[in-house]
């Protein structure tokens, strides 16, 4: 099948979170199964230096009046995946993140920036002759590409099956109605059953209502988002389309994330050479100037710092956990208040707490290899990838039982691979961390859990069959 996969970030070209990991790996896994997959993403500043030389380019015109949209054909050198980069200087060549400026504020023309990406994806899906490649399926991801489904609807184009994957319902890409006129979309779409959303218009809702199938990234999150608690105002819409909604768990790219071949960690190790994990632990403690006692556990965090991730709860319990001799190493960035609170904690416990604010891919690997347990106390978590990486590194996740965390981490039973708590409050988290510390000191039990953790297979290969079946059901209903 020919699949056009549209996303606003793709690893290793650009990444702010799990979407990039998925867009960087699912197409590769599908290509291995014989599908013909092509990506489309904006040519943000610096991207052209990371891809192979441009093979072909075409001018798609100037539909938004902000400059010509050029489509550049190339591939990702690391894995040969074909990608079309959408170039438009006024929209994408900026010295900041893909969505926000250097102060963390959303760009005020984001509706146009991602309308253009969506418009280009829809145009290619509709007019395959432009690039000599006719897609069978258009696969959209999150609000940034959700508008593509609205363009196809607006153009009353010949039917092409559209799949929309929700990676995070919290970001609904909604904008003020007075910006709608610049979108080049038919106002007929602005109904309650269309893309209107509480008096605004929403890219995510467009992606949901005009798609043939909607997926989300874990079975549990697929159920949770039908409830007001997790639905972020879209639960009613989602309940009305229950039959076309399915949860398919994300996978891991084990070429990137395996301790036995990871070139970014200090010492490679595997299930039979687990003692080498201690060498990574020692190196990580030394790198951060922390107390080097290997007989006490080290907790870690690798995360965007947002309300979603529940990291305010960790701050509440940390003083009493640190008193027991544990340590904490955090890598993250986001909310300024949380960043400052963690820096304050580091100041108060200089030999036990290390905090690095920023985004460092290499360090995230050393951290996963060197810590004993990874904290993910999320209020909601569509899938979560860091717990899956942790498992492979024999690092035990401590998670709240929600979304993809509930589907992948288990405290009870023979195949137990981590620690799980129910309620999003400090008491429940603290109790789970205390169970973690207790287990850490029962060396045999801890090592059993580590071995279980490392044996789980959350590869993309394990789920590509589900993707194939879904695509096929849409092409040949
Ligand atoms: P989300 O997409 O909600 O941020 P995921 O767990 O799905 O959560 O994916 C997060 C991805 O981003 C993982 O690959 C994780 O290692 C990475 N990551 C998060 N924060 C940082 C950071 N500060 N530095 C490096 N990598 C990070
Ligand atoms: C989102 C979610 C995360 C998920 C990722 C990839 O950013 O917050 O849970 O793993 O997308 O699907």
From TrEMBL:
Residues 2-239 form the Starch synthase catalytic domain. It catalyses: [(1->4)-alpha-D-glucosyl](n) + ADP-alpha-D-glucose = [(1->4)-alpha-D-glucosyl](n+1) + ADP + H(+). The keyword Transferase applies. GO terms for biological process: glycogen biosynthetic process. Its EC number is 2.4.1.21. Pathway: Glycan biosynthesis; glycogen biosynthesis. ADP-alpha-D-glucose binds at residue 15. InterPro entries: Glyco_trans_1, GS/SS, Starch_synth_cat_dom. Keywords: Glycogen biosynthesis, Glycosyltransferase, Transferase. Residues 291-451 form the Glycosyl transferase family domain. It comes from the Bacteria. One of its GO terms (molecular function) is alpha-1,4-glucan glucosyltransferase (UDP-glucose donor) activity. The keyword Isomerase does not apply. Synthesizes alpha-1,4-glucan chains using ADP-glucose. Belongs to the glycosyltransferase 1 family. Bacterial/plant glycogen synthase subfamily. This is Glycogen synthase. It comes from Marinomonas rhizomae. The gene is glgA.
């Amino acid at each position: 099948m020919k699949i056009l996969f549209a996303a606003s970030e793709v690893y290793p070209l650009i990444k702010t979170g799990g979407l990039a990991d998925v867009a960087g790996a699912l197409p590769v896994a599908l290509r291995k199964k014989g599908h013909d997959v092509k990506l489309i993403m904006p040519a943000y500043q610096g991207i052209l230096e990371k891809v192979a030389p441009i093979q072909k380019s075409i001018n798609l015109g100037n539909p938004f009046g902000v400059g010509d949209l050029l489509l550049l054909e190339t591939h990702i050198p690391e894995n040969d995946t074909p990608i079309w980069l959408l170039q438009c200087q006024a929209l994408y060549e900026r010295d900041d993140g893909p969505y926000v400026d250097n102060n963390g504020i959303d760009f005020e023309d984001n509706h146009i920036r991602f309308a253009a990406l969506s418009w280009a994806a829809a145009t290619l899906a509709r007019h395959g002759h432009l690039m000599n490649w006719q897609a069978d399926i258009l696969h959209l991801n999150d609000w940034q590409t959700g508008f593509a489904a609205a363009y196809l609807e607006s153009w009353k184009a010949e039917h092409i099956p559209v799949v929309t994957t929700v990676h995070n319902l919290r970001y609904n890409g909604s904008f003020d109605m007075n910006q709608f006129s610049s979108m080049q979309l038919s106002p007929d779409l602005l109904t309650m059953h269309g893309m209107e959303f509480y008096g605004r218009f929403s890219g995510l809702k467009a992606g949901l209502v005009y798609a043939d199938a909607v997926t989300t990234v874990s079975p549990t999150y697929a159920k949770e988002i039908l409830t007001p608690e997790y639905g972020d105002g879209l639960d009613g819409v989602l309940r009305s389309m229950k039959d076309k909604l399915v949860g398919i768990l994300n996978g891991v790219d084990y070429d990137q994330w395996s301790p036995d071949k990871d070139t970014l960690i200090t010492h490679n190790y595997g299930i039979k050479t687990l003692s080498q994990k201690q060498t990574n632990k020692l190196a990580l403690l030394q790198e951060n100037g922390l107390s080097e006692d290997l007989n006490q556990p080290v907790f870690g965090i690798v995360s965007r710092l947002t309300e979603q991730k529940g990291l305010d709860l960790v701050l509440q319990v940390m003083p009493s956990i640190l008193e027991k001799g544990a340590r904490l190493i955090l890598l993250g960035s986001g909310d300024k208040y949380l960043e400052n609170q963690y820096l304050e904690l580091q100041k108060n416990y200089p030999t036990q707490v290390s905090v690095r604010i920023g985004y460092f891919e290499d360090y995230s690997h050393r951290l996963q290899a060197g810590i004993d347990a990874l904290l993910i106390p999320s209020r909601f978590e569509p899938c979560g990838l860091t717990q899956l990486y942790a498992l492979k590194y024999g690092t035990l996740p401590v998670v709240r039982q929600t979304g993809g965390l509930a589907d992948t981490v288990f405290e009870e039973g023979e195949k137990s691979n981590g620690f799980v708590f129910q309620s999003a409050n400090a008491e429940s988290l603290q109790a789970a961390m205390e169970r973690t510390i207790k287990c850490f000191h029962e060396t045999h039990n801890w090592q059993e859990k580590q071995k279980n953790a490392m044996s789980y297979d959350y590869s993309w290969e394990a789920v590509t069959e589900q993707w194939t079946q879904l695509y096929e059901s849409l092409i040949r209903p």
